[in-house]
Design goal:
The complex is a heterodimer. Chain A is mostly beta strands. Chain A is built from no helices and 11 strands. In chain A, strands 1, 2, 4, 5, 9, 10 and 11 form a 7-stranded mixed beta sheet that branches. Chain A has a 4-stranded antiparallel beta sheet with strand order 3-8-7-6, with no helix packed on it. Chain B is mainly beta. Chain B has no helices and 11 strands. Chain B is globular, with a radius of gyration of 13 Å.
Chain lengths: 112, 117
């Protein structure tokens, strides 16, 4: 299930199930979005990105969906594995700036 | 390719001292690097944008005299935390943009854990 902690929401899934991590972004002018995975004590690792002219993009076991109408982004992980346990961040970028703005993050916990 | 390193990975210093953190792009040139700070269980917050050969641009609320940034070459940016205090204890992460790559693409370093006692 999904719960909201003091700072970081947590999603708990069983190994082999699919995971869906959601993100709401703030800037309607943002035109590039990225999902990052961050393991404890490490820097963010690129997973997948999507431009605003697309609404879906697939990678290996991962799919990103973009709904610009409601400014919502989701990351779907198929057949979740223990190695997927980490914190996942969405980030948005606007053509007007070179900055990445990170979302609050979601902790994914995978149980055997 | 596109590897970014940080040094040190961990540092413990006493309150009032200064600490320098290095960020290097190992196999590409980076005219722009970014410095982020991350507190436990929180997201990455952009502190400043570092441009090679010019002054850094700081985000609102970040003290430029406390967090000194120098981007003296196309492969190295440094962040110096001056007169560090316990509240500066955090995870500092840099990223670098490949000058020849897509404008949006940033490569992240492994982070530096700073503990101020």
């Amino acid at each position: 299930g999904e719960s909201v902690g003091l700072h970081l929401p947590t999603l708990s899934v069983q190994e082999g199930d699919n995971s869906i991590i959601n993100c709401a972004y703030s800037n309607s002018a943002s035109d590039y979005f990225i999902w990052y995975k961050q393991e404890s004590g490490k820097g963010p690792q690129f997973i997948i990105d999507i431009r605003s002219n697309m609404d879906k993009r697939q990678g290996q076991r991962v799919t990103v969906l973009l709904n610009k109408t409601v400014k919502h982004l989701s990351l779907q992980i198929a057949a979740t594995q223990p190695g997927d346990s980490a914190v996942y961040f969405c980030a948005e970028n606007s053509a007007n700036t070179d900055k990445l703005i990170f979302g609050t993050g979601t902790r994914l916990q995978v149980f055997p | 390719g596109a590897v970014v390193s940080q040094h040190p990975s961990r540092v413990i210093c006493k309150s009032g001292t200064s600490v320098k953190i290095e960020c290097r792009s190992l196999d590409f040139q980076a005219t722009t690097m970014f410095w982020y700070r991350q507190f436990p269980k929180q997201s990455l917050m952009l502190m400043a944008t570092s441009n090679e050969g010019s002054k850094a641009t700081y985000e609102q609320g970040v003290e430029k005299d406390k967090f000194l940034i120098n981007h003296a070459s196309l492969t190295l940016s440094t962040l110096t935390v001056t007169s560090a205090h316990p509240e500066d204890s955090s995870f500092y992460i840099c990223s670098a943009r490949d000058s020849s790559g897509r404008v949006y693409e940033q490569y992240f370093g492994p982070g530096t854990r700073l503990t101020v006692t």
